[in-house]
Structure formats: C-alpha cells, structure tokens
Design a protein that fits this description.
The protein is of the alpha/beta class and 310 residues long. It is built from twelve helices and nine strands. The model has no long low-confidence stretch (mean pLDDT 96). Bound molecules: pyridoxal-5'-phosphate (PLP). The site of pyridoxal-5'-phosphate (PLP) has 10 residues, from loops. Belongs to the trans-sulfuration enzymes family.
Length: 310
C-alpha cells in the first residue's frame, strides 16, 4: 500500500475506544477490517468499528471472506462496503482466482466531500460526471469501481472463471455448514491435546472471541482453525510433514483440507520475534478444514501429532 501512496495505521481488533479514536488522522479515508482475520482468527466487533468510522466521516470496509454471507452479513451491523476473496469458500474448489466488492449504498459521500474528491468532483475520464451526484449514495462507489477498476484497469474475471464461481455459489450454503461442523470438531479435539498449547476458534466456549461470535456469527464461523504447538517452529514443521489427508498449501477455505505453518512458508522471512508481534507465533498451524468426514480429519491430525517429537 505504501508504494501506492497509501499509509495505514494499525489498531488491534481488541483496542479500547480511546485507542481506536487516537488512530484516526485528518487524512483517514476508511477503516478496514476482517470479520474473521486470517490467520489469527480474531473476530471483529463490527458495530464498534462502524460507529467509530462514521463518527469520523469515513466508511467501514469489511473483508467477509472467511464467514461468507451465509454466516455473517456485515451491512446489518453498520459496515458500508464488504469485500470477498471469491477464490476461497465462494468458489470452494480453488479453480478460479477472484474477488468481489459489495456496496451497501448507504455511505453519504457528499456529506464528507472534501475527503472523497474521486467521488465528489468531476471525472474527466468519464464524461466529466461527478459520481456522487449522478448516481447518488446508492450507486456512486460501485459505479466508480465498475467504470474504473473493471473497465479501465481490467479487474474482471474471465467468463470461464465467472462460470466456475457461479457453480460454487450454488452449493455455498450447504458447504459452509459442513466446514463449520468440521472446524468445531477439530478445534474441540485440539484443545484437549497435550502437545497443543493454544487453539483459536471462536466456536470454542473458551475462545477469547466466543462472545463476539455469538453476536455476529450465531450460525457458525468457518472451517479454519489456528493452533500453536508446544514445540514451536520445529514441532509445527514436523507435524505438517506427517499429515496424510490434509495438503500443505498456502490456499485456504477450500473443499479439501489444507494446512499451513506461516513461519516456514508465507512468513518465512520473519524472525520469531517479528512473527510474535504480528500475532502469528512461529509454532502456529492454520488448519483449513474441508468437507471430508470429521473422523478422518481428526484421525489424520492425531497420527501426525503422535509423530511430533519436539
Ligand atoms: C481473508 C482474505 N481476504 C483476501 C485474500 C486475498 O485473496 P486472493 O488470493 O483471492 O487475492 C485472502 C487470501 O488468503 C484472505 O484470506
């Protein structure tokens, strides 16, 4: 983002209202968060962040990829724009990279015109129209997205990939229930295991985010469970090596179970201390439970844990 001239101020999802208020700057344009963060699996207090964003005249954008609209509809809690990586559960089979932006059409851009010149002043590349005047709050942002991101810059799926995505969407509601059932069963197994030091899954009554999940995710969260092995990076490496059913993949939220130790793959450039600071300890394993039978999944995890010596 910095390379594109966009600065970000980070706040913890658990921040106090004071800390949240202190993060807003005169040039803040939006607040962005994930309903369920990947891979820490924190749950966002959407109402709290929406209220803060609105009091500073900016929209709340929520990445709702992990719960999908089946398990959470952030607009009902005050979010203004929702994004999804459709590459994940929506497609469900990892066949087509894609993303979606959904605009609630509720944010009043003109009321904060000085912050949003791209929507509130004439766009010479689009016949001199002012999006917020021509399309109203219902259509301004999403029309700019389609006119500029899709038409001018080409952020658009190929017809074949859109076809794959549509196939996936038709069974999303059935698959999400199974992902949640498997995630819950795996989390309950892991939390009792002597080689596991901690488990993050908001469906566990012991989880730090359980109360928030009861509010925002009453029908389930997702199939992704993160846990930490007592033996750290070495133990996590050994564990993943012995898995037979779960594939080692960067991909997540798929019909097939996929597993990742960020410290030895996506985040391997970072030291243990840097990982800890980012909320991704070196021994963290992200297990994305697929649609397999839960007994098979637990059996695979159990035999891999058995072989961990560290
Ligand atoms: C929550 C979330 N949002 C967005 C993305 C980006 O997805 P894509 O690979 O489709 O660009 C990811 C990828 O892991 C993700 O987990």
């Amino acid at each position: 983002m910095a390379k594109m001239g966009v600065e970000c101020t980070f706040v913890s999802p658990d921040c106090t209202e004071e800390e949240l208020n202190a993060a807003f700057k005169p040039n803040t344009k939006c607040v962005f968060g994930e309903t369920i963060a990947n891979p820490a699996l924190t749950v966002l207090d959407i109402e709290k962040f929406a209220q803060a964003a609105h009091s500073y005249g900016v929209p709340l954008i929520v990445d709702n990829t992990f719960p999908t609209p089946i398990n959470c509809r952030p607009f009902e809690w005050g979010a203004d724009i929702v994004t999804h990586s459709t590459t994940k559960y929506m497609d469900g089979h990892g066949v087509a990279v894609g993303g979606a932006i959904v605009d609630s059409g509720k944010f009043d851009w003109l009321a904060h015109a000085e912050k949003f010149p791209g929507l509130c002043t004439p766009d010479e590349s689009y016949h001199g129209i002012t999006y917020a005047e021509k399309f109203g709050k219902e259509g301004a942002f999403i029309t700019k997205c389609t006119a500029q991101l899709m038409r001018d810059l080409g952020s658009i799926q190929s017809p074949q990939h859109a076809f794959y995505l549509n196939l996936g969407l038709e069974s999303l509601h059935v698959r999400m229930a199974r992902h949640c059932e498997n995630g819950q069963a795996v989390a309950e197994f892991l939390v009792k295991h002597p080689k596991v030091s901690s488990v993050s899954y908001c469906g566990l009554s012991s989880d730090k985010y359980h109360a928030l999940s009861e509010k925002y995710l009453p029908h389930g969260s997702c199939g992704v469970v993160s846990f930490e092995l007592k033996g750290g990076r070495a133990a996590a490496g050994e564990f993943t090596k012995h898995l037979k059913l779960a594939a080692i993949e960067t991909h997540v939220a798929d019909a097939r179970t996929c597993c990742l130790n960020p410290a030895s793959s996506t985040h391997r450039q970072m030291t243990d201390a840097q990982l800890q600071e980012a909320g991704i300890p070196a021994g963290l394993v992200r297990m994305s439970c697929g649609l397999e039978g839960k007994d098979d999944l637990i059996g695979d995890i159990a035999q891999a844990l058995e072989q961990v010596r560290a």
